[in-house]
């Protein structure tokens, strides 16, 4: 059925429950963690968007339920946006087109006044609005979603270091994962689990969406016998021959109203339909609670990438390098990118933790803040210890790691002195200040020229966090060293 079934639920889709709805204004961060983030369960949060500029500016004064398309096209005239044609499939996604914001809006307005003139339902997706219009503060990320390592990292670091990967994946390399989606009634998103198995959150600025969710324990039911392809549209007449277990699936459903925010947990497959003309804001993110999901996905995709070229292993100079290049191309990140990422987050958390060992050393102290850093380090340690035994980090392959990747994780002093690392530290401090004190952008920043110290919140004149960390270790050669470094930092508390 073209258009994904118009928002209805097909006869073979068994809906067994609804997503819980909670008042976000009275929910504490700790409750959100214990009830939803840690157990990896979806929730709809209400009462969090009333002060957003987008809810006012992007909707018509005469009817706040309708998008102000003219305002959007005039104020944000992006020359190139990505648009999905919801009526045509390309591999496992919808066919993507590129056009200007003006062309997109004209098509939308034209098709609603002529009744879908050329039959195509166009859906603007993955618009990097925050990156493109940083001066316009359309919304504030709710505290529940502020512990976002993915976007914090991409604001200061490239995701790939290897020049042959970085040059080919320019968009992924520069991008963030903060998006605006907008489309007329009937536009939809096919069944999928999110990039890197990240969490996502999605807020309806206007309009309504129907979500269908499948828990991760049932993911295998939507794959074919070879575990290669998955169901594209659950409202289609899904072939029993191709997907023999689809009948076993049991779905949760949710109608998300205007101004509501949905939390999408890691690894939950979902299909989404716009029930009205809808604009939403959407972030993908991960942190210490779902880092293992990211690693598990990379590991699974790596095994597939390796199996695929196993028969040319003997004629390859650098078989592991080829596997990693293919993994980066298919999944968006490879083991070395991920190792650089977790190494830098481990160092950032160690630096911050060092500063709160003695409450007199900083002006913002809380036991909760210390707990975040300890929890983060434990989760990074857990993932690093799983990386130790992989082929990518065996003695032979460690020697073949490119200079760009090696220098990004090895020399601790060099990392600690980098401007990009400093920016990551600032972002981390701000995020936990916001989460624990509900305050954004109000940290007292110290003089950045203070010697020996890196933390933006440190008030100690003779701070020597660099000396302290390098007394444990000066060079990281692979995941085992990262485990040892984290153990030393935690046992030194
Ligand atoms: O709103 C949509 O169409 C899709 C959003 C989505 O899949 C997500 O937030 O993960």
From TrEMBL:
Biological processes per GO annotation: positive regulation of translational termination
Pfam family, one: Cupin_8
CC per GO annotation: cytoplasm; nucleus
Residues covered by the JmjC domain: 146-302
SMART domains found in the cross-reference section: JmjC
InterPro entries in the cross-refs: Cupin_8, JmjC_dom, JMJD6_ArgDemeth/LysHydrox
Any one GO molecular function term: 2-oxoglutarate-dependent dioxygenase activity
Family indicated by similarity: Belongs to the JARID1 histone demethylase family.
Protein name from the UniProt record: JmjC domain-containing protein
Organism (species): Oryza glumipatula
Organism phylogeny: Eukaryota, Viridiplantae, Streptophyta, Embryophyta, Tracheophyta
């Amino acid at each position: 059925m073209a258009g994904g079934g118009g928002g209805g639920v097909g006869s073979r889709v068994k809906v067994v429950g609804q997503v819980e709805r909670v008042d976000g204004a009275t929910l504490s961060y700790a409750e959100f963690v214990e009830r939803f983030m840690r157990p990896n369960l979806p929730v709809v949060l209400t009462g969090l968007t009333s002060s957003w500029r987008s809810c006012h500016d992007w909707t018509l004064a005469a009817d706040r339920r309708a998008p102000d398309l003219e305002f959007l096209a005039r104020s944000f005239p992006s020359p190139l946006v990505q648009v999905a044609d919801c009526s045509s499939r390309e591999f496992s996604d919808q066919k993507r087109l590129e056009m200007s914001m003006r062309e997109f809006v004209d098509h939308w307005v034209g098709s609603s006044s002529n009744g879908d003139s050329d039959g195509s339902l166009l859906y603007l997706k993955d618009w990097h609005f925050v990156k493109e219009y940083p001066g316009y503060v359309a919304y504030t990320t709710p505290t529940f979603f502020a512990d976002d390592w993915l976007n914090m990292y991409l604001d200061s670091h490239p995701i790939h270091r290897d020049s042959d990967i970085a040059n080919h994946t320019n968009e992924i390399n520069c991008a963030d994962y903060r998006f605006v989606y907008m489309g007329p009634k009937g536009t939809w998103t096919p069944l999928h689990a999110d990039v890197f198995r990240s969490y996502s959150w999605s807020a309806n600025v206007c309009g309504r969406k129907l979500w269908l969710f499948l828990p991760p324990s049932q993911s295998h039911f939507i794959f074919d016998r070879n575990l290669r392809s998955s169901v594209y549209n659950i409202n289609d007449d899904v072939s029993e021959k191709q997907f023999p277990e689809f009948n076993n699936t049991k779905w949760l459903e949710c109608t998300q109203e205007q101004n509501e925010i949905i939390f999408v947990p890691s690894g939950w497959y979902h299909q989404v339909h716009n029930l009205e003309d809808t604009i939403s804001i959407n972030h993908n993110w991960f942190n210490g609670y779902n880092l293992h999901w990211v690693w598990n996905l990379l590991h699974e995709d790596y095994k597939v990438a390796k199996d695929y070229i196993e028969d040319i292993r003997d004629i390859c100079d650098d078989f592991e390098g080829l596997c990693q290049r293919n993994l980066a191309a298919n999944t968006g990140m490879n083991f070395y990118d991920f190792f650089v990422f977790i190494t830098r987050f481990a160092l950032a958390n160690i630096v911050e933790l060092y500063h709160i060992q003695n409450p007199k050393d900083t002006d913002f102290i809380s036991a909760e803040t210390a707990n975040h850093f300890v929890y983060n380090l434990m989760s990074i340690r857990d993932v690093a210890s799983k990386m130790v035994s992989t082929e990518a980090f065996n003695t032979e392959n460690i020697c073949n790691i490119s200079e760009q990747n090696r220098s990004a994780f090895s020399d601790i002093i060099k990392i600690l002195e980098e401007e990009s690392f400093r920016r990551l530290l600032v972002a981390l401090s701000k995020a936990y200040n916001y989460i624990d004190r509900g305050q954004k952008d109000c940290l007292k920043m110290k003089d950045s020229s203070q010697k020996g110290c890196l933390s933006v919140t440190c008030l100690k004149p003779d701070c020597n966090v660099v000396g302290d960390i390098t007394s444990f270790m000066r060079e990281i050669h692979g995941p085992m060293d990262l485990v040892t470094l984290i153990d030393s930092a935690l046992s030194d508390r």
